[in-house]
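Title: Prediction job returns without error message
Component: structure pipeline
Severity: low
Priority: P3
Assignee: unassigned

Description:
Job completed but the reporter wants confirmation the result is attached to the right record. Sequence as submitted:
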Amino acid sequence: MAKRPHEPATYFLDRCLDNDAIFEALVVAGADVERHRCHFAHDCPDEAWLRAVGARGWAVLTRDRKIRSHVAEIQAWHQAKVAVFDLTGKIGLFELATRIASFLPKMGRIIGNYSRPLWATVSASGAITVVKGERSGGIKRY
């Protein structure tokens, strides 16, 4: 069941971010987090889990370049109306784990202010750029 816009998001760690340190950092920060390994086989095609995650209303955290460049994944993301936060930049997973909790308030505001499908990039410093998504009520920077 999809959450209403004013409710906190459930964040889904895709295969490439499904890491104990990142999971624990998000949980400690109070986030509702689901892990790829708890719901899907390791070799589950991206299109399949994107559709399932979209049906559940979860927001995806990823670093997977395929999702943003392969036609099948792009179509699945768009059709499933998924919110995706693509963590970019040169930062290791353990350093990312120490910073990721600080990104949550901005991501939550974006989820509440944009319709899905939504695609946003998150830099190593935490700057978020909405690449695809419709905002209600004008332009706002994050």
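Comment from assignee: result matches the submitted record. The domain at 10-132 is CATH 3.40.50 (Rossmann fold).
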